[in-house]
Amino acid sequence: MNQPTYQYYCEVFKGQTMPYAFVDVDLLNENIKQLKKRAAHKLVRIASKSLRCTAVMKHILDAGTPYQGIMAFTAPEASFLYEQGFNDLLVAYPTWHPDQVGEVCDNLQKGAIIYLMIDSVAHIKHLNKIAAALQTVIPVCMDIDMSSDFPGIHFGVYRSGITGKKKAKKVLDAIEAAPFIRLAGVMGYEAQIAGLGDNVAGKRMMNKVIRQLKKRSVKEIAKRRYKLVNLIAERGIKLDFVNGGGTGSLETTTKERAVTEVTVGSGFYASGLFDNYSNFKHLPAAAYAIEIVRKPKANIYTCLGGGYNASGTPGNDKAPVPYLPKGIKLTANEGAGEVQTPIVYKGKEKLNLGSPVFLRHSKAGELCERFNHLFLVSDGKIIDKVPTYRGQGKCFL
Fold first, then answer.
1. DSSP secondary structure letter of residue 390
2. CA 231 to CA 172: how far, in whole Å?
3. Which CATH number fits domain 286-388: 3.90.550.10, 2.40.10.220, 2.40.37.20, 3.30.750.24?
4. How far is CA 204 from the centre of its chain?
5. Choice among 51-55, 272-276, 385-389 with the minimum mean pLDDT
6. Quick one: CATH architecture of 25-268?
7. How much is the pTM?
8. pLDDT tens by residue, 283-306
9. Contact predicate 83/54, CB 8 Å
């Protein structure tokens, strides 16, 4: 499928006030098809963190199998999504505050399917105490560590404390002693595979090292996940699901027999960081436009706003990615700024004061924290204007 041109989007958005963000539904649909192929018959749970727009999530779920369920990032978000008509909601991070747990219990009593995340005995005891007071059984998912420790390198993220069978047994013992807790799922997120690019331009040696580390890590974590799932089965516990992976690890995670579902988020929008992978390429379905308001010198066009940098360790990879017209670049000294963003351009398109410049966010969902609405584009026209979480008055993290 051919990617749209600068003139295509200029015509689509002619007269619109900038800045604005949009999702190209035609490209999104192509990503949905490609991700289905990459999922290799595993169910796909949608990571809301990377989308943050209920209309887009509904659109993906309407595509049918294998798309099923949402991975929310907080309990309040899961409760909100349930109110919006979503169900089968896995909360990806532990919930501690009693009010938030209580709201989940209220929704469970109404028929919601919401799984809370745990990775310690402390989590179990705390949740069980609240659930007992409310006479509600809370289904939980046990998050297991999927990082790899090599000599001098912690390859992965600091997430769960369950690193093997010994620690898992302690948590399982606590669950069996907690009458208001039901172990319903297992999750293991291999961030070092799913979220780390291995085809970054200009970093040939680093790419080679990362690929080798990934190859070693994949074998190790697959064995670890299999052993822990078997340990649970030996205790007679029947799980609703075993979740793994992310956009960047589908090819390896789907090969694991123990895994029943994979999680996908960023692949739907294909944000800037996901340009840096060697084994797949998805289409840039989400972008934003900023307006040229100054021309201080030849080939320099200064735009209003645009400094939507991504979270994480500071670096050039967290900056917005110049998109259209092809050939635009950020300046080395200013980059993308809070109130102005200079652009260097020596291409063929005629840029004037008032012209748009299109950029893509480095990380997928964070773009929506900057905009109240997304324009939905298809077949050369705007087909809808839908609210983001922010547009619905929500800010969960």
1. G
2. 9
3. 2.40.37.20
4. 26
5. 272-276
6. Alpha-Beta Barrel (3.20)
7. 0.94
8. 999 999 999 999 999 999 999 999
9. no
